[in-house]
Design a protein that fits this description.
The structure is a single chain. The chain is an all-beta fold. The chain is 0% helix and 52% strand. It is built from no helices and eleven strands. The strands form two sheets. Strands 2, 4, 5, 6, 9, 10 and 11 form a seven-stranded mixed beta sheet that branches. A four-stranded antiparallel beta sheet has the order 1-3-8-7, with no helix packed on it. The N and C termini lie far apart (40 Å).
Length: 112
């Protein structure tokens, strides 16, 4: 059974940082492209970042230079390092893989 469990969200002031984690199980994590997507209050899903099995990555323009996606295949874990957070980054963040499969999400709130 595929399971994706996100953690690391919270309340942070503008300009602050958070690191999200996604623990994966039930599939061969190292061979899959993984994604982070988010859903802001009252809005639809927005793709944030992707990392391929080989490590190449892509980002939505609004987070380029601020967010970094990474993976630890030995730990079956996906990460999203988020720096210089802005109020518009407030959302529930999900990790995802093809299927599609999603986690339960972790809330990120950026507010002073």
């Amino acid at each position: 059974e595929v399971q994706l469990v996100e953690s690391g969200g919270g309340l942070v002031q503008p300009g602050g940082s958070l690191r999200l984690s996604c623990s994966a199980s039930g599939f061969t994590f190292s061979t899959y492209t993984m994604h982070w997507v988010r859903q802001a209050p009252g809005k639809g899903l927005e793709w944030v970042s992707t990392i391929a099995s080989g490590g190449s990555n892509r980002y939505v323009d609004s987070v380029k230079g601020r967010f970094t996606i990474s993976r630890d295949n030995a730990k079956n874990t996906l990460y999203l390092q988020m720096n210089n957070l802005k109020p518009e980054d407030t959302a529930v963040y999900y990790c995802a893989k093809s299927g599609p499969y999603w986690g339960q999400g972790t809330q990120v709130t950026v507010s002073s």
